[in-house]
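User: Can you write out an input/output pair for a complex, sequences first and structure second?

Assistant: Here is one pair. Inputs:
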Amino acid sequence: MYSIFESEVRIRPDDIDVNNHVHSSRYMDYVLAARYDQMENNYKMSMKEFLEKNLTWVISDVHLSFKRELKLEDKIVTVRTQIAEVGAAQARVNFWILKKENGKEAATGYFLYTLVSTVSGRPVRIPPEIVEKYSI
Amino acid sequence: MYSIFESEVRIRPDDIDVNNHVHSSRYMDYVLAARYDQMENNYKMSMKEFLEKNLTWVISDVHLSFKRELKLEDKIVTVRTQIAEVGAAQARVNFWILKKENGKEAATGYFLYTLVSTVSGRPVRIPPEIVEKYSI
Amino acid sequence: MYSIFESEVRIRPDDIDVNNHVHSSRYMDYVLAARYDQMENNYKMSMKEFLEKNLTWVISDVHLSFKRELKLEDKIVTVRTQIAEVGAAQARVNFWILKKENGKEAATGYFLYTLVSTVSGRPVRIPPEIVEKYSI
Amino acid sequence: MYSIFESEVRIRPDDIDVNNHVHSSRYMDYVLAARYDQMENNYKMSMKEFLEKNLTWVISDVHLSFKRELKLEDKIVTVRTQIAEVGAAQARVNFWILKKENGKEAATGYFLYTLVSTVSGRPVRIPPEIVEKYSI
């Protein structure tokens, strides 16, 4: 079983759309912001360190289920993520976006990431030391 | 069988991210831009007309599969959409994002939309005249 | 002399552009986010309360001077704002965007806001009770 | 006297903000999109070619005057730009954002650009061949 980590993201005025709600694509940005934060602070290997090893995580698939609208007044969302599965070159990460104030779910879903060599541009097997870092 | 419609979207410098590619969440924005365009020009009922009837389409689910990176040099994407299924209050729309220059797929996926009353905030049965407009 | 207030804004991955820096237009978004925050928490009259009185602040002029690039690694910016001048229907607000870690200036400038009636769409004289709230 | 060039930019749903208008910072993005387009098509030296010579244009100052709100229904804006002045390491570019449909001004202003070496990170004198390209 993998750990669940969480980050807070503050809703910005420029995230709000024509319907007075957080624009749907910004939910993805909130998860990506949380992932950057958690890579560095929880998994102890920041995106920068991956790039220094000529590796990068590329998004292959995204699934988002929207549960509740977010407004500017909701102010802060809590983004929880948990690794669901680590394969040869891919890792699936589940996420939950909650309103911080009351813990209600705004969206859930997953991201399927593929580890890619920045040199060849091709998927690479996740090295054992990274599998280990991600096994917490 | 439902018709396939297509719209062109020009890639903007502010869509490009830290990896020199179109940021993943912008793919959603491209599909949404194409939908607005096609609602008005192909289905002959713009989002504005829905709002005037106290109705709006809310996104319930999104699935995106990324196939190829997009760069600023790709300039223009062609976004094709096709209704896959119309239910009581929901419509599923498949999409394909292609590089205009060579027709290569950059991403595919679907949006599940729910018709919602802007008065009650609750899902409503899709009226027959809208089902008909969407049956082309 | 008007008070200087400050807010923190976290840099998000989707703010980063093709040059690996915060995209220039995001600096405006950071100031706008800080203003919303300070209207509510420092001036004790949120944008929502203005709208409830059929008033809104519209941006008439913006000036931005860029001093230093911001990167994702800078993580958090401090946005300071200070009212410079309150006229009949307009208020000029100076701002400073600083890197939180070392206090170095990333940008400075001002926003000229006009108070507008949401009913008539026209500028209105700033009511005395608002002038007072802004005189701290 | 320098030439005026123009580009069209389509307003996207994700550009619209909480007030149902194009968000103020997006005006900057529209000008930047027009500049990329005009560098390539009018000045015949794309940003990519600058980067290949280890040069880049950095924005030093921006001034925006907002004249009229833009809505999604305005669909397309025309962005005109004209070089106002070319100095040792800097170029000032005036811009006008117009509603395509009726030619009415939505915003005007200028960008002050500085030519910077991507190797040293410092301003460099604009080479004569670039001054010439920009003298049309």
